[in-house]
Write a structure and sequence with these properties.
34% of the residues lie in helices and 14% in strands. By secondary structure, it is an alpha/beta fold. It folds into two domains: 4-39 and 192-271 and 345-430, 3-Layer(bba) Sandwich (FAD/NAD(P)-binding domain), CATH 3.50.50.60; 54-190 and 436-596, FAD/NAD(P)-binding domain (3-Layer(bba) Sandwich), CATH 3.50.50.60. The strands form six sheets. Strands 2, 3, 4, 5, 6 and 18 form a six-stranded mixed sheet that branches. The longest helix is centred in the middle third of the chain and has 26 residues, at 337-362. The N and C termini lie far apart (64 Å). The structure holds NADPH dihydro-nicotinamide-adenine-dinucleotide phosphate (NDP). NADPH dihydro-nicotinamide-adenine-dinucleotide phosphate is lined by residues 18, 103-105, 189, 195, 197, 238-244, 246, 261, 263-264, 382, 407-408, 431-434, 551-552. Residues 18, 103-105, 189, 195, 197, 238-244, 246, 261, 263-264, 382, 407-408, 431-434, 551-552 line the site of NADPH dihydro-nicotinamide-adenine-dinucleotide phosphate.
């Protein structure tokens, strides 16, 4: 029997321990003296001449958002598409994150976009990073997106030219070209950050961030070859989020000594990965299969009607099943919003108790096991799933250094200090995540200027992020934002948000081009009405709640500024309903809320 009140109190105590007034400011922005942490270790930068031409559509970002939108545009007959990407190839997060063990946390069949179009069978239920990077390249090749792409290129300036109804795009490679339409999918997690620790600049050993894995130092490769150069090395990894959970088992096998510095444990549930059976896939993958899987996955988590079958069957759908079962047991007169929320909380308590019990089952050392238990609701932080992470702490080489919520105290020339004790190491790996709650324009590296020179940063600093469908911003004609909030807001399968946005954008651009329109813009009234609709809905999610332990999901526990407050605002009746709504909006063809000129 779970003592709910005691648990709630424990969760609150653990959160309070971690709350700190500096929030996002606790981290170092990687630039200037830290800029080497951003260098591309994978593909050399090749010289090229600056461009001064014109394209119909420029897309900023060559990750899944750019790839799926580019593909949909090409399918719609809009051929003149240029993707601008800061990495040396397509892939976005999968270009940068090549750390050992990097893997898709959402089932490949719903996570990897355009599988049916590219005729690709994912090799595993949860594909590894190398396969996902290759799939990104496959999409790029199949849809001709390499032809006009600019790699190792960062947009530095984006400005609306009213007189010509064009966007002017300037880059760090000296380009200055124009585009009739600009779309941007710069991703939620593309700017790595370092912890602002005293003495961090003093460390004399080797160090790098997980999103720029240094295989030159560790040996091995992104395909899983063992990191043979670590056999005589003492290594510290700072951070225990989703990235660390995946790479720690590999480090534990490779290093002479591994110290895992933990501030807050992740919840680590069963992974249950398995290779795809080609015969099963051949029988299952009948026309329209991926759309059916996508809809099924989203419907189970957020739909009003539960599908009869659960195609994906994983940790994401499990929580939804438990919650529904509890709700369905309620007598009709008790079927209230409050009781639904209580059912959600009860399922969560159960789930997290099981996850904590799993730690005791797996981890042999009692104190280590205690340290690895997560005391918060499952969706307060990114849920993790792994079948080797907890086991890694049974390796004699591996030590958990739990900081009891305080974090690393400081860095010295020789290593890492916690509670006054110095751990001498040869290498520090920063698994400390990415900027999320910082200003949108800071993360993008440019501050776009729309109509009348209005800067997006200033607009959103004044009134928070405001869009229609999470895609259109009034005052910024011919601009499309591809991201997940203020639309479906589906965190368990981010690419699903992108594929739907890609369809929408392609439909709008095709319509504009075919009808000779120079401009398309959301009206202020339509944007206001959309925001009103979103704000009228219940905040169903735990995600972003101030009751949660701090992290990037809730702006490090601090009130958000500027673009922050509405980051987790979604369609009131959930993602499944949003996708249905959006499809109907597209199909109707009157593009309600948009003005074509
Ligand atoms: P996170 O932001 O999740 O984790 C950063 C870690 O660094 C946290 O454990 C944080 O602790 C810790 N940390 C920060 N400062 C200190 C300090 N001073 N001392 C000790 N520890 C510190 O980054 P990740 O890279 O792990 O993951 C980011 C996101 O990327 C995930 O949430 C997920 O969305 C995505 N991802 C997805 C994967 C997939 O399979 N699809 C795989 C990997 C990542 P604290 O929690 O206390 O702040």
């Amino acid at each position: 029997m779970i003592d709910k009140e005691a648990l709630k109190q424990k969760y609150a105590e653990e959160r309070d321990k971690r709350l700190r007034p500096d929030g996002n400011a606790q981290y170092i922005q990687i630039k200037d003296q830290w800029a080497h942490y951003l260098e591309d270790p994978y593909v050399p930068v090749t010289p090229r001449d600056p461009l001064t031409d014109h394209v119909t559509v420029a897309f900023i970002g060559g990750g899944f958002a750019g790839l799926v939108t580019g593909a949909r545009l090409k399918e719609a007959g809009v051929d003149d598409v240029r993707i601008i990407e800061k990495g040396g190839d397509f892939g976005g997060t999968w270009y940068w994150n090549r750390y050992p063990g990097a893997q898709c946390d959402t089932a490949s069949f719903v996570y990897m976009p355009l599988l049916e179009e590219t005729n690709h069978m994912p090799s595993e239920k949860y594909a590894h990073a190398a396969e996902i990077l290759e799939h990104s390249q496959r999409i790029g090749k199949q849809f001709g997106l390499y032809d006009n792409a600019l790699f190792h290129t960062e947009v530095t300036d984006l400005e609306w030219d009213e007189s010509r109804s064009r966007w002017i795009i300037r880059t760090n490679r000296g380009d200055e070209f124009t585009a009739q339409f600009v779309a941007m999918g710069t991703g939620p997690l593309h700017v790595p950050k370092l912890p602002g620790l005293e003495g961090i600049e003093d460390f004399k050993g080797h160090s790098y961030h997980t999103s720029r894995w240094d295989y030159g130092y560790t040996g091995g490769d992104p395909n899983g070859a063992p990191m043979d150069k670590l056999a005589d090395k003492r290594v510290a990894i700072i951070g225990t989020g989703a990235t660390a959970v995946q790479c720690v088992p590999h480090l534990a096998r490779a290093c002479k000594e591994l110290y895992v510095f933990q501030r807050t444990p992740s919840s680590v549930d069963v992974r249950g990965n398995k290779p795809t059976d080609p015969q099963w896939f051949a029988e299952m993958a009948t026309p329209g299969w991926q759309q059916r899987w996508l809809e099924n996955f989203t419907q189970i988590q957020t739909g009003l009607v539960m599908p009869e079958v659960d195609l994906v069957q994983d940790g994401w759908t499990d929580l939804a099943h438990r919650m529904r079962t509890k709700i369905m047991q309620l007598p009709p007169e008790e079927f209230t919003f409050e009781n639904m929320m209580a059912a959600f909380e009860d399922s969560d308590f159960e789930k997290m108790s099981e996850i904590r019990a799993r730690v005791d089952e797996i981890v042999e050392d009692h104190d280590t096991a205690q340290g690895l238990k997560a005391w918060y609701r499952q969706l307060c932080k990114r849920p993790c799933f792994h079948d080797e992470y907890l086991q890694a702490f049974n390796e004699p080489s591996t030590t958990l250094v739990d900081t009891d919520g305080k974090g690393v105290e400081r860095i010295t020339e020789k290593g890492v200090v916690v509670a006054g004790k110095e751990y001498e190491v040869d290498c520090i790996i920063y698994s400390t995540g990415f900027e999320v709650g910082t200003e949108y324009s800071r993360r993008n590296g440019y501050d776009m200027k729309g109509r009348d020179g209005q800067k997006l940063s200033e607009l959103w600093a004044n009134e928070g992020m405001r869009t229609k469908h999470g895609i259109h911003v009034h005052g910024f004609p011919n601009l499309f934002v591809v991201q997940l909030s203020q639309g479906a807001n589906l965190v368990s399968n981010v690419p699903h948000n992108y594929t739907e946005s890609g369809r929408t954008i392609a439909t709008i651009v095709k319509h504009a081009v075919e009808n000779g329109h120079q401009e398309v813009e959301v009206t202020k009234e339509a944007q206001d009405a959309w925001m009103e609709l979103l704000l009228s809905g219940p905040r169903l999610g735990v995600i972003g709640s101030t009751e949660c332990t701090p992290g990037y999901y809730n702006n490090e526990g601090q009130p958000a500024e500027g673009s922050g407050p509405d980051w987790f605002l979604g369609y009131p009746t959930g993602a499944a309903a949003y996708f249905e709504y959006l499809e109907a909006w597209r199909t109707k063809g009157d593009f309600a809320g948009l003005e074509f000129r």
